[in-house]
Amino acid sequence: MKSITIKGSKRESVGKVSTKALRNAGKVPCVLYGGDQALHFAADELAFSKLVYTPNVYTATIELESGEKLKAILQDIQFHPVSDKILHVDFYELSEDKEVTMDIPLRLIGNSPGVLLGGNLRNPFRTLRVKAIPSKLPDFINADISEIQIGDKLTVADLSTGDFAILHPDNTVVVQVRVSRLAVESEDEDDDAEGEVAEGAEGEASAEAAPAAE
To answer: pTM above 0.70?
Structure first.
């Protein structure tokens, strides 16, 4: 998995006054958990743009002024309710021999024949919960839809997981192709039209068979 570097500096004070001063200076107060003790540091708000405002998932390398580098994942982030500015970020330190859990994007591969025939593609999951050691975390989970016809579906059991585990039941549907509503309505209209033609033909036949009135 790709990593983004966040350059930060350790915080000497974690009180409300210092926190407000940091935010006024365009910096974000952060905490790194998972080590022997929590590490408080601050980083420029712009440093989080590629980590937060993206559909992709990355690990983070926290690079401190002392030269220390720590690998982590984004655990929680708080935004201002009005301005959407980043108020606080929590990280969790990674250990190469310890499994972590992350939401990984689901990527559709290929073109579904069912969709080309007018079917409606549905994929309710944009991400899937995955557990693995950091070096085995994938950038994406691929779902091949190149053979999905109308009425077919893909479940978690159909996905290739490799060195990671997907934390959803095997029967969880991740992609399916259904008959589109327009196709159903079109078939109903055709059936109605055929019925009207048949009724008209029967009426004409009855009229011809009836004896003329004297």
So the answer is: yes
Gap between the Cα atoms of 63 and 48, Å rounded = 13
The full 3-state SS of 168-196, as one line of letters, equals: CCCCCEEEEEECCHHHHHHHHHHHHHHHH
Strand, helix or coil at 40?
A: strand
Q: How far is CA 42 from the centre of its chain?
A: 29
- CB 65: neighbour CB atoms within 10 A? 10
C-alpha angle 127-173-55 in degrees, rounded to nearest 5: 15
Domains of the chain as residue ranges with CATH: 3-94 (2.40.240.10), 101-181 (2.170.120.20)
For residues 174-182, give the mean pLDDT. 84
Residue pLDDT, tens place only, 78-113: 999 998 899 999 999 999 889 999 999 999 999 999
With tokens 């991740």, the residue in question is 174
Between the CA atoms of 149, 152, 157 and 162, what dihedral angle is there, to the nearest 10 degrees? 20
